[in-house]
Amino acid sequence: MTSRLPPDLFQLFTPRPPLTPVPPTDRAPDDKPKPALSGIAQYVAELRQAPPATPVETPKQRRDRIKREHAIQARDSIIRGLSTWDPSLNLHATEDPYKTIIVARLNYDTTEKDLRAEFQPIGNIVSIKMVNDMEGNFRGYAFIEFEREADMREAFRRADATRILGRRVVVDVERGRTVKGWLPRRFAGGLGGTRLGGKDLNQKEPGRFDPAMPPEPERRYVDNRSHDRPDRPPRPRDSSGNRAYQSHRENSRSNYDSRNRDRDRDRDRGRDNDRDRDRDRDRDRSDRRDRHRSRSPSVRSSRRDRSYDRNAGGTSHYSRRY
């Protein structure tokens, strides 16, 4: 049967070649002589004449070195940029900075038409400046100049944190030409803490605080109901050594318990009154139902027949009437 198998399967059933016989050893492996071990005293002189070892940079040291080099390059770049940066000389800026807002974090597919449709209902727009890079690609933010300063303030109040083309935008006033000493983000300025430094310093949530200003102190909730506050003067004690307000607390507790009992009693009384009122209402409803039934013709005829049967052979009030 195996002869009919294909070659690839027939090779699996082919027996392996026999093992090559090995002559037996003359002694056990542990009984064989081993090389003699000697010390390194004869090589000490050569080690002293060897050249010094070259230090090798570890991966952590390499990362730290690259980080320091990048920091130095960034600082030099900021210094060079600040020497030539003057926002008042920007020919592509809007005319009046006090009527201009900046819309950041825009979708990269946003056009001037989309921004005009979003902000035109707020007020008349004078111009919209879309910020592009050297290659002409949109960088994600734009400057919008309004005709009135009141419209600019209204746009800043209403449009901040709204969604344009599916992205939540940030709207702020122009600060480059209106705030003294203001620096943009590329010169280590701006607001917020998303680019303060490393991962241990950067914040994930955006904000509008000034990183140069000291942070606000953390607000803590103080429970004023506590009786063990450290700034509270000690309570007076009576002659027996107990606190003078102990009896007052007991009286207050008893008054509180009595008020609770009175409240429960009033609640039970109101519940009983409601139950009695419901019972009376059900009784009146059943009486009205019976009265309505007695007025129907079929009921009157059946009652008349029963009265006639009861007074059979005699004179009933029906017979007297008719």
Task: Draw up the topology in text.
Blueprint lengths: L6 H4 L33 H5 L10 H26 L15 E5 L7 H8 L5 E8 L5 E9 L2 H11 L3 E2 L2 E2 L1 E4 L72 H49 L2 H14 L6 H5 L1
Antiparallel strand pairs: 1-3, 1-6, 2-3, 4-5
Describe this structure in words.
The protein is 38% helix and 9% strand. The protein contains eight helices and six strands; from the N terminus they run H-H-H-E-H-E-E-H-E-E-E-H-H-H. The strands form two sheets. A four-stranded antiparallel β-sheet has the order 2-3-1-6, covered by helices on one side. Strands 4-5 form a two-stranded antiparallel ribbon. The model is unreliable at 313-322 (pLDDT under 50).
Gyration radius (Cα, Å) is 50 Å
Unreliable stretches:
313-322
Number of helices: 8
Structural class call reads: alpha+beta
**N- and C-termini, Cα separation:** 122 Å
